[in-house]
Amino acid sequence: MRGRIIGLSLAALTFVIFLTAKVSVSADGFDANFYANKYPDVVAALGNDPAVLYNHYITYGVKEGRSQNQQEDTAKYQAALAGGAAPAQQAAPANEPVNGLPYSTYVDVDIDGQCMTYYENGQVALQSPIVSGNPNRGNGTPRGTYTIQSHIAGKNLVGPTWNVWVDRWMQFTPNPCHIGLHDASWRSSFGGEIYKTNGSHGCVNLPHDTAVALFDRVNVGTPVVVH
Questions:
Q1: Does 53 lie in the same domain as 160?
Q2: Which of these ranges, 16-25, 35-44, 140-149, has the smallest mean pLDDT?
Q3: Which of 22, 51, 76, 191 measures 20 to 30 Å from 160, CA to CA?
Q4: How many CA atoms lie within 13 A of 145 on its CB side?
Q5: Are 73 and 11 members of one domain?
Q6: What are the CA-CA distances from residue 62 to residues 59, 170, 199 (Å)?
Q7: Confidence label for 41 from pLDDT (cuts 50, 70 and 90)
Q8: Measured between alpha carbons, how far is 91 from 93 in angstroms, rounded to an integer?
């Protein structure tokens, strides 16, 4: 009997080791830190344990169109913006996507049109003229696909030639490049051709009320598309 118990125990241990090895291979491309930062709704509900986050991804995330790492997320956006299909493993989100993008909720920054539009669940929730970076001084706002990195109410922005306070700061480029959306109380007008002669150092300047309204709607992880 004792020999049988030992045999069963070894068999069970072998099975557990097999499962563990299988999970580690399956989770090879999964970035728990990225997933937690991009999807605060998941963290709020389940916490930030890597194993729990991975289980959420394979159980629900794939079906919901969530990305498992930054590379996959960037590729998905670039494919959508180029008119191509999103990766096959990414299902469409529950809400209707906007402008061919794989998400129904995101911040759209149109440089040529000098307009910021916030889409929420496929609908225009907020829209405003902006002043982006001055391209004629080498400070054009970088185009690309990002996510909100910092979400701060009240911040002092300091640079080589500026030191200003903003009430709402929403950084979307990764550190050490600090480019974000923020209020610009020193401006009296927005939109048009202002950015070509009196543009920012790279940030997206918003009217104060717009910045406050946008800040209240977005979170760390909200997608930002600059084009």
A1: no
A2: 16-25
A3: 191
A4: 18
A5: yes
A6: 7, 28, 40
A7: low
A8: 6
What's the pLDDT at 87? 38
Least confident of 54-63, 73-82, 133-142: 73-82
Cα angle 216, 218, 219; round to 5: 110
Asked if residue 139 and residue 53 are part of one domain, the reply reads: no
Which residues have C-beta within 8 Å of that of residue 172, sequence separation ≥ 6?
Answer: 107, 146, 147, 148, 149, 179, 180, 181, 224, 226
What contacts 102, CB < 8 A, 6 or more positions away? 65, 76, 77, 80, 86, 90, 92, 93
The secondary element (H helix, E strand) that includes residue 158 is strand 150-158
Would 90 be classed as within a structural domain?
no
How do residues 84-136 score in pLDDT, each as one tens digit? Answer: 333 333 333 445 666 677 788 999 999 999 999 999 998 999 999 999 999 99
Residues 172-194 have a mean pLDDT of: 94
The H-or-E segment that residue 208 falls in is helix 208-217
Token digits of residue 47? 């916490």
CA 135 vs. chain centroid, Å, equals: 24
pLDDT, residue 96, reads 60
Residue found by looking up tokens 């241990």 in the block: 13
Give the DSSP letter of residue 92.
Answer: P
Q: Under 8 Å CB-to-CB from 87, ≥6 apart: which residues? A: 72, 75, 76, 79
Same-domain pairing of 76 and 110: no
| Pairing assessment for the beta strands 180-183 and 163-171 based on DSSP bridges | antiparallel
Count structural domains, the chain.
2
